[in-house]
Write a structure and sequence with these properties.
With about 575 residues, this protein is of the alpha/beta class. It folds into 3 domains: about 10-70, no CATH class; about 75-215 and about 280-340, Ribokinase (UDP-N-acetylmuramoyl-L-alanine:D-glutamate ligase, 3-Layer(aba) Sandwich), CATH 3.40.1190; about 355-565, Aldolase class I (TIM Barrel). A 9-stranded mixed beta sheet has the order 7-6-5-8-9-10-11-12-13, with helices on both faces. Strands 14-15-16-17-18-19-20-21 form an 8-stranded parallel beta barrel, surrounded by 7 helices. Bound molecules: the ligand Cc1ncc(COP(=O)(O)OP(=O)(O)O)c(N)n1, 4-methyl-5-hydroxyethylthiazole phosphate and magnesium ion. The ligand Cc1ncc(COP(=O)(O)OP(=O)(O)O)c(N)n1 binds next to β14, β17, β18 and β20. This is Thiamine biosynthetic bifunctional enzyme TH1, chloroplastic.
Length: about 575
């Protein structure tokens, strides 16, 4: 075990590190807080604590000692809990909650349960010595910040955990004293209560009982009001945990969800509107894991609890209509992804380069000039044969842009035409558009990719082979090359001509759409440069600065079909 009480060297990734005692670290300007922004986030703790005797890792370089910011530690939660085969609660919920909250999560499994949305059909405890082995494997190697406990089904397992935590201290311990599943099945019997009270609770930084669990820990005390919850929190605090969160989800006659947090000095009443949903299985596990995640990131307990509670409420609200299983209590979606995928019958198709064939790019000024809404413009372009739409609304207020984008998206989805947003990655995310188009001075494509995820379509404007190469490296799906011809639509835009287009097409590993001054009269000439990855033309004024968008789109469509290039 690394000790903070002496100075030593440690080899990490073939580099030598100095282990600093808390005294050294504080003298260097590190605080006793767990994580300080911009500083290496390895724990510095007071000596004598049962917590982590952590250290600040300092890289030795050429005799001088430099702080190694490049090795910022990943926040790490270890969950010690039971497996839920239905994956709504237990280990599986903990993993999802930690993933959603952006921390690493390792697992020690204490029991296997056969479980679904109806209830718990069976449970089998993992032997104590194998729980001990799992704990040792993770804690001896993986720099765990916070241990979170869930189902601890035997006195022996609780004792094993407490013993191992004394041997391998961590920064914080979050105890969810799971005793009864949400379906009412008993997961830890009364014999465990005294071991909880005497051994586990005194080690905890926070415990998170619901009303039934708080009552069981307090020998059956009646808990029916918020005042009762406060009394329970105080009594539980006397058992040794630093903080107590009594969850009032089961409180009768309350339209709000009220939880009481008590830290021995102050009571905090955390109140939020109750979310009416069937899908609450695993709420307790997820809340405790989320608290653990925020503590692992370095938040103080009150902030951690508030953020965790808000996260779970958001996920519950998002998951209200999800249908999984036939029982009374369904799981919810921690990653806020399942609803749009499962319920949207017009979901996005994977990107197909042939969609670039007739690429219609809207322009708010032109539509205004011709007295049509952006939605009408998009409808007309699709009716005329546009194969992809980009909303390029440079003057729109964000709120109006978002509303229009949502309306356009409904139309596009109905017709199976992808809808991209120009420049505004935020708007694309907010309306769940199919992707974005960004230029060289917009948000870098690699950042947009991180924000949008792997499935969305990203296009990048490129005038040179180098830019085309970078777009590919950044994870773009296509490039827009131009202006091929002079244009009034974009000010100060350099024209690359057909030669520039050809050069970029030949260098590009990505499909290309040509843009700039293109219309019925010259589209054929553009396509005739005959490079296989030129898939189509992107057009603004030749479609939208005209009286009838549908007619102009149809004419261009015919020209492109006539050129017989790029459509496959
Ligand atoms: C398909 C397509 N290609 C290029 C552009 C131009 O994007 P950008 O360079 O960011 O300029 P603005 O359109 O934002 O003025 C485009 N929009 N679409
Ligand atoms: C946005 C853009 N990027 C390069 S040229 C251009 C304008 C294209 O508009 P138009 O089709 O009216 O020439
Ligand atoms: Mg742009």
């Amino acid at each position: 075990m690394a000790s903070a009480t002496f100075l030593s060297t440690l080899s990490l990734a073939n580099k030598n590190y100095l282990l600093l005692t808390p005294t050294h670290a504080c003298a260097k300007g590190y605080t006793n807080n767990f994580r300080v922004s911009n500083l290496p986030s390895i724990v510095v703790r007071k000596e004598g604590s049962v917590r982590s005797q952590g250290f600040v890792a300092m890289q030795e370089k050429g005799g001088s000692t430099l702080s190694d910011d490049s090795r910022t530690k990943t926040p790490h939660v270890l969950t010690v809990a039971g497996s839920d085969s239905g994956a709504g609660a237990g280990i599986q919920a903990d993993l999802k909650a930690c993933a959603a909250r952006g921390v690493y999560c390792s697992t020690v499994i204490t029991a296997l349960t056969a479980q679904n949305t109806v209830g718990v059909q069976g449970a089998s405890n993992v032997p104590e010595d194998f729980v001990a082995q799992q704990l040792k494997s993770v804690l001896s190697d993986m720099q765990v910040d916070v241990v979170k406990t869930g189902m601890l089904p035997s006195v022996g397992i609780v004792k094993t955990l407490c013993r191992t935590l004394r041997e391998y201290p961590v920064h914080a311990l979050v105890v969810d004293p799971v005793m009864v599943s949400t379906s009412g099945d008993v997961l830890a019997g009364p014999s465990i209560l005294s071991t909880f009270r005497e051994e586990l609770l005194p080690m905890a930084d926070i415990i998170t009982p619901n009303l039934k669990e708080a009552s069981a820990l307090l020998n059956g005390m009646q808990l029916e009001t918020v005042d009762d919850m406060r009394s329970a929190a105080r009594l539980l605090h006397n058992m040794g945990p630093k903080n107590v969160l009594v969850k009032g989800g089961d409180l009768p006659d309350s339209s709000d969800a009220v939880d009481i947090l008590y830290n021995g000095h102050n009571f905090y009443e955390l109140r939020s509107p109750r979310i009416r949903t069937r899908n609450t299985h695993g709420t307790g596990c997820s809340l405790a894991s989320s608290i653990a995640a925020e503590v692992a990131k370095g938040y103080p307990m009150l902030s951690a609890v508030k953020v965790a509670k808000r996260f779970v409420e958001t996920a519950l609200d998002y998951s209200k209509e999800i249908v999984i299983g036939n029982g009374p209590q369904g799981p919810f979606d921690h990653l806020l992804r399942l609803k749009s995928h499962s319920q949207d019958c017009h979901r996005q198709q994977p990107f197909d380069p042939s969609d670039l064939f007739l690429y219609a790019v809207t322009d708010s000024r032109m539509n205004k000039r011709w007295g049509r809404s952006i939605v009408d413009a998009v409808k007309a372009a699709i009716d005329g044969g546009a194969t992809i739409i980009q909303l390029r609304e440079k003057d729109a207020e964000t709120k109006d842009f978002l509303e229009s984008a949502k309306a356009c998206l409904r139309i596009c989805r109905l017709h199976g035409v992808p809808l991209l947003i120009n420049d505004r990655v935020d708007v694309a995310i907010a309306c769940d558009a199919d992707g974005v188009h960004v230029g060289q001075s917009d948000m870098p494509a690699c950042v947009a990719r991180t924000l949008l995820g792997p499935e969305k379509i990203i296009g990048v404007s490129c005038k040179t082979p180098e830019q085309a190469e970078q777009a590919w490296v950044d994870g773009a799906d296509y490039i827009g090359c131009g202006g091929v011809y002079p244009t009034n639509t974009k000010e100060n835009n350099i024209t690359v001509g057909l030669n520039g287009l050809k050069t970029v097409c030949m260098a590009s590993k990505l499909p290309v759409v040509a843009i700039g001054g293109i219309g019925v009269s010259n589209a054929r000439a553009v396509m005739e440069i005959r490079t296989p990855n030129l898939k189509g033309v992107a057009v603004v004024s030749a479609l939208f600065d005209r009286e009838c968008v549908q007619t102009e789109t149809r004419k261009l469509h015919e020209v492109l079909l006539g050129s017989n290039i790029g459509s496959t």
